[in-house]
Design goal:
Blueprint (H helix, E strand, L loop, with lengths): L26 H8 L8 H11 L11 H6 L7 E5 L9 H8 L1 H15 L3 E6 L1 H12 L7 E5 L9 H8 L23 E5 H13 L1 H4 L10 E8 L5 E6 L4 H7 L7 E6 L5 E4 L23 E6 L4 H14 L6 H18 L7 H12 L7 H15 L1 H8 L10
Parallel strand pairs: 1-2, 1-4, 2-3, 5-9
Antiparallel strand pairs: 5-6, 7-8, 7-9
Bound molecules: iron/sulfur cluster.
The site of iron/sulfur cluster (SF4) has 14 residues, from α12 and α14.
Length: 405
């Protein structure tokens, strides 16, 4: 492979970058920006390059991409590009599928060829899938890629829910004790990656690990997409260098960090980071103090003067309403927890409500068939911790927004 230097494509910087380097979503623009795809990857060669790159998953857990790929063994493996993007304020995966569908397909094909995959899928909501269908029609090497529509629900992108949907069942989590890497789609070994992870994998495969690491930091190499929302001038999808601080990302989105009280990082299963943490990098290590991590790449801003607790209550309710009510914690625990948060937000002067919310968060944690209750409990704990002054004020009958009960 001929090495491609950074000057061959647009340099990544805050707000611009590698993943959106093509002038349009079509094949010609894609190849003009990135050149031809290398199609001779072996499993070992791709694993070596991925491990050296340090690429971590961009969908939630941040698992090393090489480790996930190396866990696939057995006959007739399957590779799935997951673009379900159930996070309500996340826009990055849809933006990537619409603007760079060929890059996602490249990554899917690279992984599929390295594994000798028997089937390849792209799973995404209908509007984003339309762009992928056009891209598939433009190339011969992607004809075996199957496109499957993902319903617009919070949990439709959970790994076992994805497999269930691809098999024709409901897009709901199922037995999460069985590893997809050994028994996923129709019992076959299954590699499931977020679509941004696959697009990044395509870049590693094209340009190599050293190039990938030429931006970002040693701990967080490359770039990542961030969906910026909330109290911002305009919702935006930004491509930022790894290791960028929360403040840098806010500024890249035109947000005055000095006027921002806190941001929810990672998504609705994420954690709040108060203004005092804005100079920390948006990485798991950087945000560990707050229990945060990049997750699905969401930054939801709450402006100063707006009550974070009041902003959090509808999210707790949304999470309670988002399960399929298959397990006890989701049937009873999450609605009860959301109701307590709503009572605090409404200014009910009942002193034990905060400890009751903590108690319910503890009760649901680790009790579901999937990690949805854990994520919801983590969000509520973070709300009670970061907005403790607001909680205290509400329980005393007042709010930063000015009302008094
Ligand atoms: S824990 Fe909740 S979201 Fe997960 S499978 Fe059970 S009911 Fe569904």
């Amino acid at each position: 492979m001929e090495a491609t230097t950074e000057t061959d494509i647009r340099l990544p910087a805050l707000g611009t970058g590698r993943l959106f380097a093509a002038a349009g979503p079509g094949r010609a623009a894609h190849e003009a920006a990135y050149g031809a795809r290398r199609d001779d990857w072996t499993r070992e060669a791709l694993l070596t390059e991925l491990e050296a790159s340090g690429l971590a998953g961009r969908g939630g857990a941040g698992f090393p991409a090489w480790r996930k790929l190396s866990s696939i063994s057995g006959r007739r493996p399957v590779v799935i590009a997951n673009g379900a993007e159930g996070e309500p304020v996340s826009r990055k995966d849809a933006a990537l599928l619409r603007r760079a569908p060929h890059l996602v397909l490249d990554g899917l094909l690279d992984a599929g060829e390295a594994l000798g995959a028997s089937q390849l899928f792209v799973y995404a909501p209908a509007d984003a899938l339309a762009a992928v269908a056009e891209a598939v029609a433009e190339r011969r090497d992607a004809r075996r890629v199957r496109l499957v529509e993902a319903p617009r629900t919070f949990i439709s992108g959970e790994a076992t829910a994805v497999v269930s949907a691809l098999e024709g069942g409901p897009a709901l989590p199922r037995d999460t004790t069985v590893r997809l890497s050994t028994s996923g789609y129709r019992g076959q070994p299954t590699l499931l990656h977020n679509i941004e992870t696959l697009a990044q994998l395509a870049l590693v495969a094209r340009y190599g690990s050293a190039w990938f690491r030429s931006t970002g930091t040693r701990e967080d190499p490359g770039t990542r997409l961030v969906s910026l929302a909330g109290d911002v001038p305009a919702d935006a999808v930004l491509e930022v260098p790894g290791g960028a601080t929360v403040r840098e990302i806010l500024q890249a989105g035109g947000v005055d960090a000095a006027s921002t009280a806190a941001v929810l990082v990672g998504g609705f299963h994420g954690a709040w980071v108060p203004a005092g943490g804005f100079d920390r990098p948006m990485t798991a290590a950087g945000l560990a103090r707050y229990g945060g991590r990049p997750g699905a790449g969401v930054l939801l801003a709450v402006a100063k003067g707006r009550c974070g607790l009041t902003a959090a209550a509808p999210i707790a309710r949304y999470l309670a309403d988002s399960s399929a009510q298959q397990c006890g914690p989701c049937m009873f625990g999450l609605p009860a927890m959301a109701a307590v948060v709503e009572r605090i937000a409404a200014g009910e002067r009942t002193p034990w409500l905060a400890s009751e919310a903590e108690r319910l968060a503890g009760l649901v944690t680790g009790r579901g068939a999937c990690r949805h209750p854990d994520g919801a409990a983590g969000f509520v704990r973070s709300t009670l911790s970061v907005f403790r002054d607001e909680v205290h004020a509400h329980l005393g009958g007042a709010c930063v927004q000015g009302w008094q009960r």
